[in-house]
Design goal:
The protein is an alpha+beta fold. The protein has helices at 28-31, 39-73, 77-99, 111-122, 125-128, 283-295; strands at residues 4-10, 13-16, 104-109, 133-141, 153-159, 161-164, 171-172, 178-181, 185-189, 193-198, 201-206, 210-220, 230-236, 254-267, 270-276. The protein folds into two domains: 4-107; 110-295, no CATH class.
């Protein structure tokens, strides 16, 4: 039986249902108890299962490699093949016993909570259709005004994707879950909490420990200008202090200044900054997330 929990969301409250489950290394006495599933314990089990499956896949891969190598050099091929096939069969049996069945996270929502959740999830659609979304990885002050179009800060960013999908390694009855795919992590917005997948591990953060900041910022574009962007001015790539072009540089194009939307997701163990080429989006997400996080705790 795979581990999991049922979250019942109604009347502005989130309650976790009781169920019997098996857990790796749990004593027989504990297995016989009908106890309340702890979401944090479920996350621990999910992380254990991810690493278990990954280790098993590695073992099976190297086992097959060894078979091929020994077949090529013809050193006792029959005996070696028998041993390796036995090990692979044993691995499959072990996986069937301990690794089969994805952890379950199921939700029971009343009509009101379902409507509120749909409003929150729908607010991600306008973000999904934005022409350019970038994740701010780091920034540092620019002390050389003549380079980088006189920008005050140099930003290390990466173009990212926002959409809907079912999370990795988890079985859920939610048909769609909004996600933000960053460089090394994926952020999932579950009905009861935020879940971050990074380095083959999940981490859960309650919504009441999160808040979203919304503001507009200027963005100097040195590539193609997105069609939904608003150009508010231009700067020379190599300017003088008065803003005129520095004639010492033969290649000195004008770069457009875009007014973009910046959304910050800040909370316990998370601080991410996203910038969107469309300056008018994000307000709906801010309003719906604020109402949802305050109502459902």
């Amino acid at each position: 039986m795979s581990l999991g929990y049922y979250a019942e969301i109604k009347n502005g409250k989130i309650q976790y249902k009781k169920s019997k489950y098996e857990k790796y290394r749990r004593t027989n006495e504990e297995r016989e108890k009908n106890i309340k599933n702890n979401p944090h314990e479920v996350i621990e089990y999910i992380n254990y299962k991810i690493n278990f499956d990954y280790s098993l896949a590695q073992y099976m891969f190297f086992s097959i490699v060894f078979i091929v190598i020994f077949l090529l050099i013809i050193i006792h091929p029959i005996i070696f093949i028998v041993v390796e096939i036995s090990l692979i069969v044993l691995s499959l049996i072990t996986y069937a016993i301990y690794g089969s069945g994805r952890p379950r996270i199921m939700y029971i929502l009343d009509e009101e909570s379902y409507t509120d959740l749909e409003r929150l999830y729908d607010s991600f659609e306008e973000l999904q259709h934005c022409q350019k979304i970038r994740h701010i990885i780091s920034s540092k002050r620019n002390y050389d005004y003549k380079y980088h179009a006189g920008a005050g800060f140099l930003v290390d960013s990466r173009t990212i994707k926002i959409g809907y999908e079912k999370p990795k390694y988890i079985k859920t009855n939610m048909t769609r879950v909004p996600y933000i795919k960053l460089k090394s992590r994926i952020i999932y917005f579950f009905p009861d909490q935020l879940m971050i997948f990074e380095n083959r591990r999940y981490e859960a953060i309650p919504y009441n420990n999160l808040h979203i900041n919304l503001q507009n910022k200027d963005w100097i574009e040195d590539g193609n200008v997105p069609i939904d962007a608003t150009i508010i001015g231009y700067r020379w790539q190599h300017p003088n202090i008065d803003g005129s072009p520095d004639l010492r540089f033969r290649y000195n194009p004008k770069l457009p200044i875009l007014n973009c939307r910046e959304i910050e997701i800040i909370g316990d163990r998370i601080e991410e900054t996203l910038q969107f080429s469309n300056k008018d989006i994000g307000t709906n997400l801010y309003n719906e997330f604020t109402k949802y996080s305050q109502k459902y705790t």
